[in-house]
Specification:
mainly alpha, about 70 residues, 4 helices, about 0% strand
């Protein structure tokens, strides 16, 4: 994960003080995504795709989805 991705996601989510590539960061980021009105569009359906269960992939896909 790049410093840009970390900063971009911190600014959008308002989650500070956590490395999004750790499991702690993944949990916080995923909880934030689940509260968003666009979550089904991002996930592509009701279920969370298995590829998003990896912290670095979630960061990359979310950054791309949000236009970062």
């Amino acid at each position: 994960m790049s410093a840009y991705e970390q900063e971009f996601l911190q600014n959008i989510t308002n989650i500070r003080g956590v490395d999004f590539e750790t499991w702690q960061g993944w949990e916080q980021l995923m909880a934030w995504v689940k509260r968003q009105p666009w979550k089904q569009e991002f996930f592509g359906g009701e279920k969370i795709p298995s590829k998003l269960l990896h912290p670095a992939t979630l960061v990359a896909e979310l950054t791309k989805y949000l236009g970062g």
